[in-house]
Specification:
This protein is mainly α. The protein is about 60% helix and about 5% strand. A hairpin with a 6-residue loop joins strand 1 and strand 2. Helix 1 crosses helix 2, helix 2 packs across helix 3 and helix 3 packs across helix 4. The longest helix has about 35 residues.
Length: about 210
């Protein structure tokens, strides 16, 4: 099945979300997992990022303008999920962190996890998350897209940044808008005062009487 055919299938209302994620996994799951593992360096986080990538892809498949770019689009979604699980130490590279919804760490006795076991674990997590409304939360997390339907990347949040740091840009924008309004009002008052006729009209003729 080609990627455009897969996109057409995923956009059909007849396919269950779990089945849609399974089709995506069969087509691109191995490559997506390798990309997540390379970005995060942790198999547990990579599995969680892959799971959420599949969920987000199914939820936002209608945003993809060019079905032939499905692979590229999935890798972009995976990169966004990996970035969400990373923090940026001061002056350093992003470091992986575990999200509350990633589940407990899984250590299969130190043995490498096979492809079949990986697929079962990822798709089982997708199915289990469905009952708790997890899909809706994952879909709502990915809210920025460009004109081609690709997710807009966000830089990883610096470790230890207080919440107030993250709202400073918005406060600065509001302050600039207020300043512009004050300047505009001041200019308007100045212009109207210059255009007003002298008072009293005709000047002061008290000395002529």
């Amino acid at each position: 099945m080609t990627d455009p055919d897969l996109v057409h299938l995923l956009r059909s209302s007849r396919i269950h979300p779990t089945d849609a994620c399974a089709r995506l996994y069969d087509a691109h799951g191995a490559e997506l997992y390798r990309a997540c593992r390379a970005a995060l360096g942790d198999p547990d986080l990579a599995r969680a990022a892959l799971r959420d990538t599949l969920i987000a892809a199914r939820a936002h498949i209608f945003r993809l303008h060019d079905p032939a770019r499905l692979r590229e689009w999935l890798l972009a979604l995976a990169a966004a999920e990996c970035a969400r699980r990373s923090v940026r130490p001061a002056g350093g590279l992003p470091a992986p962190r575990r999200a509350a919804d990633d589940g407990p760490p899984y250590r299969p006795g130190g043995a490498p996890e096979g492809a079949d076991a990986l697929k079962v674990r990822v798709l089982s997590a997708v199915a289990e998350s469905d009952a708790s409304g997890y899909r809706e939360r994952v879909a709502a997390r990915v809210h920025g897209f460009d004109r081609s339907g690709f997710p807009v990347a966000r830089p990883p949040r610096a470790a230890g940044d207080p919440p107030v740091v993250r709202i400073i840009p918005g406060v600065a924008v509001v302050a600039c808008m207020v300043l512009l309004l004050v300047l505009a009002w001041s200019a308007y008052l100045h212009a109207t005062s210059d255009a007003a006729p002298p008072w009293p009209p005709g000047g002061d003729h008290s000395e002529d009487r």
